[in-house]
Model the fold of this input.
Amino acid sequence: MSRPAPLDPETPDPLTDRLAARLRSLRVAQGWSLDALALRSGVPRATLSRIETGATSPTAQVLGRLGAAHGLTVSHLMALAEAAPGAKVAAEDRPRWRDPETGFTRTQVSPPLPGVPGEVLSCDLPPGITLTYDAPPVPGQAHHLLMQAGALTLTVDGVSHALTPGDCLRYRLTGPSRFETGPGTGATYLLFLC
Done:
């Protein structure tokens, strides 16, 4: 399978602008002020303002908090910023996003589609990174994580799982989660959300 070209952090990303507009419209549709969303998400008001104006790209952790505030998965938030995909999603057309803070990259192999349950993500987490999500965007959603390369420690419901290539972890996400890589090895994995 061919992989999309690496993202250049210096090149303007049109997805960031579309995501900024979509996040603002979601907040406005709820009738929330920036202060109200800050209280619901735990993301500072100033950060929300910079994200909504496209001045900065949100990190994976911030997207997780915003998704939880709106009751949407991060993938669903990202899909709202993209054009609706057809039945076939060509490798070169897969939406890809890179966390500007950690270098974490997620590619939507099979993006969410209204009326079609499930989605598939391909994720790359660099060495020495910890991503913590305070709450699940969709409580009780089933996850299947299939390790492709590297090593990952995933903590779900207070239980840590050491994962290596070929391991598959099945879980329902009901509380906080933490993804950690060691200082010398990153992790590449597929994540199936049902």
Observations:
- The chain has two domains: 14-80, 91-193.
- Confidence is low (pLDDT under 50) at residues 1-9.
- Strands lie at 96-98, 105-110, 119-125, 130-133, 141-150, 152-156, 159-163, 168-173, 177-180, 187-193.
- The two ends are 23 Å apart (CA to CA).
